[in-house]
Amino acid sequence: MVVSFYAYYSTSLTPPKNLLTVNNVVFTYAENSKAKTISSQQRSLPDDWLKSSLQISEGQYLATINVDEKPIGLWAIYLPVVQMNAKIYLNNILLGQVGTFGEDTLYDDPFARIGNPPFYFTLPDNVVKKGDNALKIQVQASYASGLLGKIYLGEAKELLSFFEQRYAVIVTAKKLITAGILVIAILMNVLWVLRKQDHVYGWYALMLYTWSAHNIFSMGINIPLSQYTQNILALLTLGWFVVFMVKATHHYMGQRFPKREKIIIIAACAGSLMLVFSAYLPWSLRLSHQIWSTFVLSLAGYALLDFTFKYRERDDLKNPLILPAGFFMLVFGIHDWLMVMEILPRDNGRLLHFSAPVSAAVFGVLLLERFTKVLKQAESLNQVLEKRVEEKHRQLENNYQRLKEMEHKQLISEERERFMKEIHDGVGGHLISMLSMVRNGKQEKQILVHAIEATLDDLRIMIDSLSPQEHDIPSLLGAMRMRIEPQLKASGLRLHWQVNELPAVADFGPHKALQVMRIVQEAMTNVIRHAEAKNMTIKAFVKKENNRVNIEVCDDGKGIQLDSIAGRGLGNMQYRANEIDAKLNIVNTAPGTTVSIVF
Amino acid sequence: MTSKYSVLLVEDDLHTRHLLASIVDAHAQLRISQAVATRQAGLDALEENQPDVLLVDLGLPDGDGTDLIAEVYRRGYSTDAMVITVFGDEKHVVRAIEAGATGYILKDGGNRYIAQSIIQLKEGGSPISAPIARYLLNRFRPAPADTKKHEIDLPHLTEREKDVLSQLSRGFNFTEIAEFLNISPHTVTSHVKHIYRKLAVRSRSKAVFEAVKLGLIDIVE
């Protein structure tokens, strides 16, 4: 790919066949500012002032161009390489000017521009004569680094395409590349802002910014800085670009070499100072330029070699694109260095900037890849965390459920214990007293029958309180009503039943059910036996004011004398009520009494 | 003389059997057709003839009394099945009702009560207690989430039936309910019988559905 690129590049420099080429010139100059006489030299184009030992900044090129026939149609003159300020005359007619000639103090700087674009002038009519034509080029280039390439004369059509080809390659391409690099630099900048902790993006952005600056400074755009300053800046930015590149590669590989980096930065600063101060020492510019370029090239070489070695070792750096990109850069870098070192002719132009798009694109892609990888990692980490949270949540729920179950089991076993006690005392007690009655011969049938019936009722109550509906108070009361029906009928009492639907009472298990029914049974039995009442009303309802469940046994009898009823009965009821956290109220409603249980 | 209701008695406890048999026989409108002590004997008796009333104890030495109740249905008899229970607790009674019983008697209910219950049953009314009523209310309440397709076809309670059950479950007696709803007490008791029949139908349908699911029965449309 390098070869094909170079081939294309070279063809842009090969002129079409039938053009008049100026190869040999006479260069006239003044030895120094005090000289009275003009010296002259034979020179051939391309002419590189660095190759001669003259320390001059002004001169003239003279050449004779022989034209066979008077030209028909439009002709043009083309100077592909003019690295200095120049005024071009043909037959003493000024054709055009390159750069400023001390007319504008701001731009007054006869410094040999490195990045001058190729120059193309169409010739006005009748300038070219048949026969000899005198070509004169007046030039200005301080610091003795001027450069003049071959000059071509011919039909505008042919020259134009030749010129445009070179222009496109040298000027337009460079501008496009720089713009592209700048865009990528901004993108990397944005990425760095988004992920401040990944310094590699920041260094890479800085690297690209510096490279763009380098291109801008070496393109000869009209920036309000003197040519000299621009040149220095171009050199500085090139060097610092490589420094940033080293930093970026280090960060990319996740390695820090604080000592190495320190040395590099110190060297770069020293070099920069050297370049800046060479302004005051004109002869040193060339040397310092070469020193700086060598430093830059070796630094670049180090960065790329370091990367290559690590590339082999580390799997995560394996990307087939990296090596060609680096290779491009190195090859073009060496080419440009050779030009600076005056080993290669300078008129072909720098090539380094052409490697830019490839490298920038490759490294840009790599960094983007890394960015997306980081994002993906974050995503998957997120997912993992979410799953863990879910898992923990589930565990917590399970634990909570288990805890609840345990609590529940505990409650049930407590209930069961209480119940066992009831059976013991209630039915057990009845049966034992009955047994002793029979044993002792006290077999009065009626008493025994009553005792047995009482026992059966007790059992029934217990079964009712153990049934699945034990929490449903209305049906418990209904069952009780059925049991007491024969007694009621026999007593002649009128029963009024006013039981409503009731909401569930907290923790209403078999034990509470049993106690409630015993209380109610006791109350009802009292009314039947002792109250001498005509009517008994059973009520069950929710009191609106305080939302509490009330069960009431009311009668219209003679009322309770607190000391008349055996303390045991009432005391028993109170005890049971306390057992189940309910309130027992006995109210004289003259006539009669109301016994109420409130939850 | 109006014909007496014939009663097939299946009770394994000797003393109880004799007692119940004598109660039944003592009543003018009732007579014992047969009094047996085992499930098999009961099946044989049903084979021989169709009694008006089946009085059965669930806990038999050679099997479950509900089989006899189901047999009555299987044969398409118009027999009314009643289960003998000590405490009248929902579990026993409802199991019998699901099998097809339409009544129950409490063993210690007293002579008059037992006879009266049987006659009342034949005349169209079923006995019930507050806890049984409450249980039935819950059983007929549709479970919203798992109402499968087949359950939509099962019998549900009418509003009147729900009212009756609600009041019964709170302890109101037939007379009070009849007054409240402006119907006769007899209608109230026959509502109860209808409700028992619905429960049996539901229970049977569910059994069939389960059997189909298990591949034991093939439904031919």
Description:
In chain A, helix 2 packs antiparallel against helix 3 (199-217), helix 6 (282-313) runs antiparallel to helix 7 (322-340) and helix 9 (445-466) runs antiparallel to helix 10 (473-491). Chain A has twelve helices and 17 strands. In chain A, a hairpin with a 7-residue loop joins strand 2 and strand 3 (38-44). By secondary structure, chain A is an alpha+beta fold. The mean pLDDT of chain A is 80. The two termini of chain A are 96 Å apart. In chain A, strands 3-2-5-10-7-8 form a six-stranded antiparallel β-sheet, with no helix packed on it. Chain A has three domains: 2-165, Sandwich (Jelly Rolls), CATH 2.60.120.260; 195-381; 471-598, 2-Layer Sandwich (Heat Shock Protein 90). Helices cover 55% and strands 17% of the residues of chain A. Chain A has helices spanning 2-11, 156-194, 199-217, 227-252, 258-277, 282-313, 322-340, 352-439, 445-466, 473-491, 510-531, 567-579; strands at residues 20-22, 24-30, 38-44, 47-48, 58-67, 75-79, 85-90, 93-98, 119-122, 131-140, 147-148, 151-155, 494-499, 535-543, 548-555, 583-588, 593-598. The relative contact order of chain A is 0.06. Chain B is of the alpha/beta class and 221 residues long. Chain B has two domains: 5-122, Response regulator (Rossmann fold); 130-213, Orthogonal Bundle (Arc Repressor Mutant, subunit A). Chain B has helices spanning 14-26, 39-48, 66-74, 90-99, 111-122, 130-140, 149-152, 159-169, 174-181, 185-213, and strands at 5-10, 30-36, 53-57, 59-60, 63-64, 80-85, 103-106. In chain B, helix 4 links the parallel strand 6 (80-85) and strand 7. The chains are: A alpha+beta (599), B alpha/beta (221). Chains A and B meet through helix 9 and helix 10 of A and helix 6 and helix 8 of B.
